[in-house]
Give the backbone structure.
Amino acid sequence: MINSREVKVDEIEKEAKYYYDNGYRFVTETCLEEDGKFKIIYTFEREYELENFHVYVNPAEEVPSISKIYFAALLVENEIQELFGVKFKNLAIDFEGLLFLGEYSPISPQASIEIMRRDKGDKNE
Amino acid sequence: MIRMSDKSTIPFGPQHPVLPEPIHLKLVVEDEKVVEAYPSFGFVHRGLEMLVQKKDFNQMVYVVDHICGICSAMHGQAYCQAVEELIGIDVPERAKYLRVVWAELHRIHSHLLWFGLLADAFGFENLFMLSWRIREKIMDILEATAGNRVIISVNIVGGVRRDIDTEQAKWLLDELKEVEEGLKELEKIVKNNYTIKQRTVGIGVLSKDDAYMFGAVGPTLRGSGVPIDMRTTGYAAYGNLDFEPVVETDGDTYARTIVRVREMFQSIDLVKQAINKMPEGEINVKVKPNLPAGEVITRVEQPRGEVFYYIKSSGGKNLDRLRIRTPTFANLASLLHMLPGSTLADVPVLVLTIDPCISCTER
Amino acid sequence: MGLKEFVEKSFKKSPWVLHYNCSSCNGCDIEILACMTPLYDMERFGMVNVGNPKHADILVVTGTVNHKNKEVLKNIYDQMPEPKVVVAVGVCAATGGIFREAYNVLGGIDKVIPVDVYVPGCPAKPEAIIDGLYKAAEILKEKYEKMGKAEEVLK
């Protein structure tokens, strides 16, 4: 079982800053789908102890990226954006959904909620 | 003299002689200096995490084994430990020790493989051949004990599927002695060779704070002086074995090489300890066909660093979600930090310094 | 021996190999690399691993094809000069193997390029790979001879 506390979407950056200032290492973010919403679990580590917090995101909502605080979050946030379609704002480098999947790849079926079709209609088959 | 522009963009990969795996880097260079680097992946992306919906939790062991052929036993181990924790079963003691044996054998073969590739990247082909010759001994041991050379799939939920008997254990220890001899030779070369030092000392320096904050794991992190090793948390039988995380402080490619060389000796020692302390008994327990609801995080130290498994189940035969954060995925941020400012000729060495496993990264 | 015969003989006796990892799990790739190392030593058949498609006669592909690398694979294949032979190493390259049901996987590499030799195994053993490559060298010889005849006819 994992311990995780819920925070609001606009508190993400504040929380991440708190962990950064207290010497926590970024481990990863995990995205899953729960009752028509996305749940993103943020995991940090200090001295082998994991700390988690999670947010619930509505499909239409934009999530503030923590990649400006923890550079390491860059890839995982791009991955979530691509495979689940959750939109992140303020990404350090935005791959625009082309990190893992090519222009002609199928849309990832990882999430049943469809929000982000890649906006490259003319290139898509 | 008129100069058009100082900057040019050079693509690196996906098909590149030094890379056994496809990764694409877009390098913006100014004369010989790399100023910006943008990675592009996806040449190995298969969507394995999604297969949990199609395969039940026992079949998934074989799928996670195929995330990466180099550290496959540890992927299986991490997954099995997660499921075992979810169900709440205790694995027999003997199985825990056997898991250590196979995991450490994998670590030796992976590090030797990496060392060969690094030697190849800086043009020392002889050393590549030498380290791969030593590695073949480990492959023989894996084939004799588990039945396959590369993807051995020994882990199952509830234990392991094969046993190592006394006679085989004795033979294994004899073989390891020969491996150790070879490694000593290799260590001598690493410590004294001019070419290796020229190509690795001071290349890709990662300071202690940077390595920590970029979330680096494994030898990349320990080469910068941070003693974090998931094995010290004591999963499987590591709690009963005697070892210390290997740490070097220079933070350059040479330090990371030394960390890996020392880790190979440590792994041999761990295999010896595990075989000597291994208790008699069962090697696996029966598992009920249905999972309870819940979520579990496990972390296992792979040759490249810590792997993170998150599983979530709401009952039934299939898991709801499997999330794998592989060590290379965590180390890529450090690579992106190291590349700008290096020379173009060092890029292959820098890419290899984190021991990239693209197949893991993209799943 | 004239120059033409000399080139012909070296071509048949020393095919150059290009290896491409096409979303494989690395298992087959490290076995192919193991083939080049002292124990298995592919070079005794005159086979050398090269990095440039334009130099290669045999293309060794491991792993399944996904939507992003099918273009790359096709590109590499098109760049190789005729005659060329393709070897699919491992079950993934043959049918898709364990990844067959994954969403981003197309299946075996024969969906994209024609394959001459299939080497089974998960991962394929070095002995099997060497056997496959030896077969490929023979097919290459055949193709070369056919090409020579075609040239004579066209003259």
